[in-house]
Specification:
The chain is α+β, with helices and mostly antiparallel strands and 105 residues long. It contains 5 helices and 3 strands, in the order ααβααββα. The chain has one domain: Winged helix-like DNA-binding domain superfamily/Winged helix DNA-binding domain (Arc Repressor Mutant, subunit A), CATH 1.10.10. The chain has a 3-stranded antiparallel beta sheet.
Length: 105
């Protein structure tokens, strides 16, 4: 069975968020991502695999090095979801405010 991964799965893990944060400055090789992370190269590679499967990172082989580049346009899906959720909750709170205002009379 093939597991479908999505952007929410990508950003759910703090290590993957750290990797995305590092890639905001531009493409990096795996060694550069590992630097100062406190995580092994193998551990970073596992997280990069998830990010790649989610479409958040593109992996490119250049000689012996593998470079990673962030695809931040995938975060639009998260932004859309947050905006829709915010709209729904605002509507619910407005209804609650009206209800509470009517019960005080």
């Amino acid at each position: 069975m093939i597991e479908r991964r999505d952007v929410f799965q990508a950003i759910a893990d703090p290590t993957r968020r750290m990797i995305i944060q590092k890639l905001l400055r531009g493409p990096l090789n795996i060694g550069q991502i590992v630097e100062d992370s406190g995580i092994t190269r193998q551990g970073i590679a596992k997280h990069l695999k998830v990010l790649n499967e989610c479409g958040m990172v593109i992996l490119t082989q250049k000689g012996r090095e593998q470079f990673c580049e962030a695809r931040l346009d995938k975060l639009d899906e998260v932004v859309d979801w947050v905006q829709a959720s915010r709209k729904m909750w605002n509507q619910r709170f407005e209804k609650l405010d009206k209800f509470l205002a009517n019960t005080k009379k």
